[in-house]
Amino acid sequence: MKKITLLILLLLNQLSFSQDYSLLRKAEKKLEKKEYDKALRLLNRAEKADYGFCGNASIEALYKIDSLKLRLFKESKDLIGLQKFLDNINFEFNERYSKERIFLALNFYKKEELKRLLIESILNSDRNNLESYFGIVNFKLSDKYRIKLFFKDFNVLTIMRNENITYNEAVIKIFQKSVYWDMLN
């Protein structure tokens, strides 16, 4: 009797675990059919699902959800949804999402204007607003528009010391050597 009970519990656990991933598969199919509203509802449900006790499974599922949501907002050309998604992303430490933020901003600004606004944002910010949290810097482009960018190599203090420049000037140098600057040239 104990063996049967254990077997039933294992089967139920497996069914509930695989059911959560089925939401991702269903969302992917809806996305292929361009049924964006249904896909988004499934992805929102998948975010709340339990992926078991393994942390790696949860991280993998959330990464997949983020990738599918990014694809959904881009394909559906939902710029407001894309902006909200990028502002609340789960995996921030990734250049991929920062690049998407640049592409999104280019829907509102021309390249030269965006470059100018980013530099002005650095120059007009006090050091506390530019302080990086693990390489993430917030740029204020206007009263209504901000952009967060992740920098792999944010060594401001080293640049300040070596080149005898201000904090803001060091951030500009880092920005001008980044992949984002290349995107705007």
Describe this structure in words.
Helix 1 packs antiparallel against helix 2, helix 3 (55-75) runs antiparallel to helix 4 and helix 4 (79-87) packs antiparallel against helix 5 (95-105). The protein has helices at 2-32, 36-48, 55-75, 79-87, 95-105, 111-123, 127-130, 156-163, 167-176, 179-183; strands at residues 136-140, 146-150. A two-stranded antiparallel ribbon has the order 1-2. It is 68% helix and 5% strand. A hairpin with a 5-residue loop joins strand 1 and strand 2 (146-150). The protein is built from ten helices and two strands, in the order αααααααββααα. The chain is mainly alpha-helical.
Rg calculated over all Cα atoms: 21 Å
- Biggest β-sheet strands, sense, barrel: 2 strands, antiparallel
- Walk across the major sheet and give the strand order: 1-2
Count of extended strands: 2
Q: What is the helix content?
A: 55-70%
String of helices and strands: HHHHHHHEEHHH
Distance between the termini: 71 Å
| Chain-averaged pLDDT | 81
Total helices: the number is 10
What is the global morphology?
elongated
What is the strand content? Answer: 5-15%
Alpha-beta classification: mainly alpha
